[in-house]
Amino acid sequence: MKNTGICPKCKSSDIVRFDGYAGAYGSGNNVMVGHSIFSAVNVNRYICCNCGFTEEWIDTEDIEKITNSKKAKR
User: Fold this and answer.
1) Which of 32, 14, 15 shows the shortest CA–CA distance to 23?
2) What are the CB-based long-range contacts (under 8 Å, 24+) for 13-17?
3) Contact in structure between 52 and 45 (CB atoms under 8 Å)
């Protein structure tokens, strides 16, 4: 949905994006890669307004933070 603007389930183009954010005490839609709120990586949601299907994406420039995080398990 992020790249095509089309829902893969119902083929609707009625897609909205909710930006990820990091709120107080780690609230919000994010991944904590360190020990403080300043290390949070936002996770953006794409939602189909026709069927409700959702996808979550991390911006390309933040993938390195995820990869290098000591909290990541492989």
Assistant:
1) 32
2) 14/48, 14/49, 14/50, 15/46, 15/47, 15/48, 15/49, 16/46, 16/47, 16/49, 17/44, 17/45, 17/46, 17/47
3) no
pLDDT one-digit tens code per residue, 3-60: 999 999 999 999 999 999 998 877 899 999 988 888 899 999 999 999 999 999 999 9
- C-beta separation of 11 from 66 below 8 A: no
Helices of type H across the chain: 63-68
Alpha-helical (H) ranges within 19-69 are 63-68
Residue 66 corresponds to which amino acid? I
DSSP annotation of 36 reads S
Q: How much is the pTM?
A: 0.83
Distance separating alpha carbons of residues 48 and 18, to the nearest angstrom = 11
